[in-house]
Every structure is written in structure tokens, then in C-alpha cells.
TrEMBL record:
Organism superkingdom: Eukaryota
Natural source organism: Cinara cedri
InterPro entries according to UniProt: RNaseH-like_sf
Full protein name: Ribonuclease H-like domain
Length: 217
């Protein structure tokens, strides 16, 4: 421990509090150790920032998934339907807030099974109206794409042999990509977001109203 020069934490009280945290105990052995906040955790915190409009889409999507996935009978019936329709997937994924990759995976799976979910839900179910709303699906496909890209970055930042320099370089490169994607969206070039682009092409939708939301995000 006396040879350690830096300690990286996620900001939790057990790690960083003034009196009895890991940092305090570590510095009793090595007073010169420096502390930094984990870059991956900081990036994950930043990615939680959403406008009320996008947050509403995310929350509705999670509730929709929970309606099917959290009930054993509903889940089994939905799995049977997916098998009969020859779907690539047989179930939705539950959202878990503490897992960094959860949002991207949950939304991507919902987009991929959108037709099956719409077919499965009864006409009387309140969630059907969202899956038939073009603006809602546009926002859903965009969120699925952007969170999938954030997941790729999260995985890219981890692993053996990574140091603070390589992590900073990867984050700076990603920030430049964000500027490129923002510019492309404003010029109505949507190839950078695959699910979003496919939905627009398949349904020949005008997207002027949502471009500003995406650009701001």
C-alpha cells in the first residue's frame, strides 16, 4: 500500500466519507496517496441527464416492460407468442438502475420486439397507444441507439491494461463523435442511429419536430 500513488473510487460514502471511509484508512498507511473519481462512473452519471420529454419515454418504456416481464403468467404467454411469430428473442429485459448497461439493453430489446409487444397487448391496455404513436417510437428508437453507443463506450473503457491516459483519450474521442452526430442530425443525416433511421425510412416520417430535442440532448 505504501507504493500506491492513486486510488480511484465511485464517490460512495463508504469510500469517501471524512471519518471512517476506505480513503481515510488508506491514508493512515500512505498519506501521499491521491484520490480521483472513477471516469466510467462519471460518464454513467452524465448519461442519466435527460429532458422531461425523453425521461417520460424512458419511464413509460420501463413500465411497459415491467407490465409483461414482472408477471410470470404474462411473461410465459409473451414468450409463447414470440416463438409462434418466429422472433429472434423470446422475452423482454427488466430495467435495473444500478447496472450501467441496463437502459441500452432494455430499450434495444423493446424496439426489436415492438411488433410482438403491440400484438400481445390487448386493445384495452393503455400502453398500446404509445406503441402506435410515431413520435413516441421515434424517441424510443433514438434512446435505444444512443444508450447502446454509451454501452459500447462503457465496455471499451474497461479491461486489463487500461490506464488514465487511454481512458481520457477514449472519452475525448467519444465527445468528438457526439459533435459529429449532432451535426448529422441537424442536417437530417440519420445513418449514425440505426434503429431511428430504419423506422424513419420504413414509415416515411417527417422528423422536423424531434430534431431539436435530439440535438439538445
Amino acid at each position: 500500500m505504501t507504493k500506491c500513488v492513486g486510488l480511484c473510487t465511485d464517490g460512495a460514502r463508504e469510500m469517501c466519507s471524512r471519518n471512517s471511509s476506505v480513503i481515510v484508512k488508506f491514508r493512515k498507511i500512505n498519506p501521499n496517496v491521491t484520490r480521483m473519481h472513477c471516469n466510467i462512473h462519471r460518464e454513467a452519471l452524465v448519461s442519466k441527464s435527460l429532458s422531461d420529454d425523453f425521461r417520460s419515454v424512458l419511464n413509460t418504456s420501463v413500465k411497459l416492460v415491467n407490465f409483461i416481464k414482472a408477471r410470470p403468467l404474462q411473461s410465459r404467454l409473451f414468450e409463447k407468442l414470440c416463438k409462434e411469430m418466429g422472433s429472434n428473442h423470446k422475452s423482454l429485459l427488466l430495467h435495473t438502475e444500478v447496472r450501467w448497461l441496463s437502459r441500452g439493453k432494455v430499450l434495444t430489446r423493446l424496439v426489436e420486439l415492438r411488433e410482438e409487444v403491440t400484438y400481445y397487448l390487448d386493445e384495452k391496455n393503455d400502453y398500446v397507444k404509445f406503441l402506435r404513436d410515431e413520435k413516441f417510437i421515434l424517441k424510443l428508437t433514438y434512446l435505444a441507439d444512443i444508450f447502446s453507443k454509451l454501452n459500447e463506450l462503457n465496455l471499451y473503457l474497461q479491461g486489463l491494461g487500461e490506464d488514465i491516459f487511454s481512458v481520457h483519450n477514449k472519452i475525448r474521442a467519444y465527445m468528438k463523435k457526439l459533435l459529429l452526430w449532432k451535426n448529422n442530425i441537424e442536417n437530417k443525416m440519420f445513418d449514425c442511429f440505426e434503429s431511428f433511421s430504419n423506422f424513419i425510412i420504413e414509415n416515411q416520417i417527417e422528423v422536423d419536430s424531434i430534431i431539436t430535442y435530439i440535438s439538445d440532448h
